[in-house]
Specification:
Structural class: mainly beta
Mean pLDDT: 84
Oligomer: single chain
Strand content: over 45%
Radius of gyration: 19 Å
Amino acid sequence: MTTKNLNTSIKIVAFLLITIGFQPVKAQKFFIGYGLSVYTDLAFLSTSEDLGGGSSNELGISLLSISAEMKYNIHEFNSETALSIAASPRIGMMTFGDFEGFGNFSIPIYAQIDFGNLSTYDSKKNSGFGLGVGYQFDRYNLFGGEGFSAGSLALRGGYRYFNRNNKAREIAIKYALPTTVEIDTEIFDAFGDSETIPVEFNVSTVQLTWILYFNY
């Protein structure tokens, strides 16, 4: 990602965080929990550039990712429907096959419509779901290797339910649409000599997250 695009990404995330911060917070409209992704936090890198052996496709997999799951209802239409702002900052242990380094974090923020369970504190439904659209900022290779960042449109869908202990749970799928990043990459010529040059990759992410809510 270019410096210009990186600065734009940071500004958008900061704006959304400030927007949430200025909402008049009421405890009965705020939901908080944590999420776990075990081998289900994935990133896909691809490039059409010739890296000495043709184009390249890389899959990033995180052994474990942990997220803070938060949503705040900015408008409740009724007891079973609400409009909310949701955020789920996440840190993980992602590695890519042919790239040095490991570790990733992201800050996705969504505008979301909620139905049924977990939509409001007055909901009587045993199940529900939420659909969201927003923006996600990602940083990869936190430790070692060539770190790189990405920012793109993000989508979120979640199914909410009560478990056998009557605790609120959610299974959520989060998807960041493909965007272009620039990564310094070692390439080889026909003689086996190598050089490191910036290469443009398309990157997208998908996470399947199991979420437990504390205050519902």
